[in-house]
Amino acid sequence: MTTRLPLARLIAVEARLFLREPAAVFFAVFLPVALLLALGATIPGFREPVPALGGNRVVDVQLPAMMTLLTVVTLALSTLPTALVVYRERGVLRRMSTTPVRPGTLLAAQLVIYFAVSVVSVALILVLGNAVLGVPYPRALGAFAGSYLLGALTLFALGLWLAAVAPNSRVVQGAGSAAMFPLLFFAGMWLPRRLMPEVLRRISDLTPTGALGQLFTDAFAGHPPEAFHLAVAAGWAVAAGLAAARMFRWE
User: Fold this and answer.
1) Which parts pass through the membrane (predicted)?
2) Which residues partner with 49 through β-bridges?
3) pTM of the model
4) 201: buried, middle or exposed (CB in 10 Å: 19+, 13-18, 0-12)?
5) Distances (CA, A) of 71 to 62, 65, 80, 121
6) Among 19, 119, 229, 237, which is disulfide-ready with 154 (CB 3.0 to 4.6 Å)?
């Protein structure tokens, strides 16, 4: 009981602090939803059946998969590591070591909040996409849920590793932004993976976001997940998680 109470209190406090950051709420929650609705409504080609997608529309498969990925990438590589490095810079974690609440409890609270925020954003993507644009819910719903959990684990592990190696908040912000763009490219954000040259697609297959982007796309299209992409994402999760645990500094 004494362990759960501080965690619950920390989650409540950290949630209020997160909601006081309008930029974080906008980029992580509202921007992916707004992009889905705006692009789906204004680009006619996105609402036409595409043979390469099994007759599905881009707005039914590719676009919601990419917006789902954008939500988690933004939280994992920008918001989470920045918050942790700022706490380390300000001595918050060091001061917490002198109280009954350990720094690890704060880390757990952060992960719970950011995962919950990502779930809210994805729920808005699914519900509003369906209501406004007629986007069907993922046809392989179980595969989507499992892939999403794996994706969150993988990307948050990468975010923790980034927070572990970044010396200060300016570096972590720059590094997170610099990493996001190539990772989103290999996921198929701007050039769908099916249109990539063979070499680029093979590189994409080995990146965490390339594997996750394909898993999300397959789930929306109703296809079962490929074992190779599951293995790639899991491998990145294990490697980044071990590296973060080994290198993370509380002070």
Assistant:
1) 23-43, 63-87, 107-128, 140-164, 171-191, 227-248
2) 57
3) 0.90
4) middle
5) 15, 10, 12, 7
6) 237
Separation of alpha carbons 116 and 12, rounded Å: 12
Domain count, the chain: 1
CB 192 within 8 A of CB 209: no
Task: Name the packing angle between helices 208-221 and 141-165 (round to 10°).
Answer: 160
Token pair listed for 91: 């001595």
Q: Which domain holds residue 150?
A: 4-247
User: What's the chain look like in SS3?
Assistant: CCCHHHHHHHHHHHHHHHHCCHHHHHHHHHHHHHHHHHHHHHCHHHHCECHHHCCCECCCCHHHHHHHHHHHHHHHHHHHHHHHHHHHHCCHHHHHCCCCCCHHHHHHHHHHHHHHHHHHHHHHHHHHHHHHHCCCCCCCHHHHHHHHHHHHHHHHHHHHHHHHHCCCHHHHHHHHHHHHHHHHHHHCCCCCHHHCCHHHHHHHHCCHHHHHHHHHHHHHHCCCCCHHHHHHHHHHHHHHHHHHHHHCCCC
User: What tens digit of pLDDT does each residue of 180-214 get?
Assistant: 999 999 999 999 998 899 999 999 999 999 999 99
